[in-house]
Amino acid sequence: MTTLITGATGKTGQRVAHRLQTLDHDVRAVTRHSIPRFDWHDRSTWAEAVDGCDSAYLTFQPDLGLPGADEIIGAFAAQAVAAGCTRLVLLSGRGEDGAQRAEQAMTASGAEWTILRSAFFLQNFTEGAFADELAAGSLTMVEHTVAEPFVDADDIAEVAVATLLDKGYVGRVLELTGPQLLTFEEAARAVGGPGVAYRSVPTEDYIAVLTEAGLPAADAAGLAYLFEEVLDGRNAYVTQDIETVLGRAARSIDGLAGGEQS
Questions:
Q1: Strand partners of residue 51
Q2: Which of 29, 51, 205, 221 has most Cβ atoms within 10 angstroms of its Cβ?
Q3: Global pTM?
Q4: CA 190 to chain centre
Q5: How far is CA 256 from the centre of its chain?
Q6: Measured between alpha carbons, how far is residue 62 from residues 56, 67, 249 in Å?
Q7: pLDDT, tens only, 5-18
Q8: Half-sphere exposure in the Cβ direction for 106 (13 Å, CA)
Q9: What does residue 64 show for φ and ψ, rounded to 5 degrees?
Q10: What is the Cα gyration radius of the chain?
């Protein structure tokens, strides 16, 4: 039994691959630079990546909620199922209309599916989108007033492994959150220290911030408007799904801020 891991160098992909390998489970970890190569936007790379795999953990870049992701996910899922890779666990976003269209495209493929709808990662402050700016003592975010139940990527990975290995989760949608609601400003200062300079800017200005950081203009616009969409209060609540699956409480920001990660 071999599990395909897409986005294998990403924040959750690498963690899922590591945990499966620790359990002596065969893993095929793929990226745009791996052998075999895998690129969501190059369908010629799909067949070799999925060949011989019976399950897959799917993460879509840059975001499942962006236009066109549903068509790609649906086409890949259908091809995977036809090739015998029938067990699919998809990392999705909470409250994203586009992501829900992608979920529907996957479930229509005939796969044995599980969907993990995740809150914003805590690791975005240490490994991802906000890490460089935060390390320099500041954070810029699109204007909003609501809090977010930030979730630890290690918890997501543990849930993903559990659902990949236990068919009792087939057909389930799990919403993964941390144990508390925090604003981006509170989270930034919890990780970076009380001296972090936080500023919120209108969406058009935030697009400029993202493009200046090196994101392609189309992706920057898509992500900025996606943030604007989901940071309207729709996700401002916590769930118990991590505790239900893992039998323990979700990790809080305290461990990340203190450098205590597993």
A1: none
A2: 29
A3: 0.94
A4: 22
A5: 17
A6: 18, 11, 29
A7: 999 999 999 999 99
A8: 31
A9: -65, -20
A10: 18
